[in-house]
Amino acid sequence: MPVTTRAAALRSQIAEETTSSMKQVQSSEISTESEKHCSVVQQLAVPQIESATEINDHRDHENKRLIEEIDISIENLCIDEVLTLSTASENKIAEQQINKQLGSSHSDDHQSTILSSSSVASSVMKSPTLTVEKVKIDYSLLSTESSDKDEDGIYLGDSNAIMNKPAKNGEITSGTSTRGGKMIYMNDFGYLFLNETKNAVGWRCARRDLNCKAVIYTLKNTQEFSHWNGQVHSHLRDAGYTRKNEILSKIKSRVVDEFIPIKVIIEDEYRKAKLTAEEKRVMPLPIQIESGLYKLRRKRYPPIPTDQKFIIPPVYQETYSNSRFLIYDKRKTVYGGRLLIFASDDQLNVLFHSE
């Protein structure tokens, strides 16, 4: 074999040995790394398995606890319903017994009985046997004698006894309604003019908003109470309402008759009335009714004349003291029309004695 061939063979053999040794080293390193990785994975898997087991145990424990709480709540609800039913039945029985006692005592002795105390049933829960104790309070009855002469006797259960009273004779005062109609007041009730007969005048209740059908009749000559239609008022008496309308009626009459500022008239009437705290809450403020009173006053003024041939009403020809106020009223061509001179005697004296 030539020399070159042997050298090449030796080189190739050495290269193969080197390559094989390197492969062995690499394979050993890979095996060690894989073993380390497997050990780490095993170490991680063990706690994961342990944590999953703990979670399952915790869930089971929570489910059991919730089921127990639900059972306890259901038992409590059932017990409460039983207690309420038993308490309601006992209350009904006690009320029936009291009504029987009240009926018998009222029919036999003519006594009005008043219920002084109501039944109280209290339940006390005891753990863990859940036994119930009920405490009962006896009903005590207080009876008061009622006179046969008392026409306004109010018995238990008669809720309308306060309103169901006949119309009785009382002091009658006159006034005007908000629309200027006739109106009277009697026993804290207001009545509007209804009709007029030969001997009497009919008045209906002013509370038309409540559909009250009460009607009274007064004598035409003496203005005293005569009789009524038998229909009781459908509302309670209101002293504040009557008082309010009386004061407003006085204000309206003064506004029409006296030509002074309306606000002064309102404040003067409020001052004279000596209103209480409750009446002050009911009465309107001067600024609230001032506009309507000015309209009422303007209606009493004569219309504005369209020519010189108009008649002056007597109320404008005299002063408040019934002295002369219109001192000259002539129509001449020299004047170019009608000449009017208004002056009181005091004003003329001041004029004549002045320089």
TrEMBL record:
Protein source organism:
Rotaria magnacalcarata
Stretch list, region Disordered = 1-23
MF terms per GO, please?
A: zinc ion binding
Q: Does tRNA processing count among this protein's keywords?
A: no
Keywords carried by this UniProt record: Metal-binding, Zinc, Zinc-finger
Q: Which top-rank group of organisms is this from?
A: Eukaryota
Which residue range or ranges hold the FLYWCH-type domain?
Answer: 176-235
Name the chain's protein: FLYWCH-type domain-containing protein
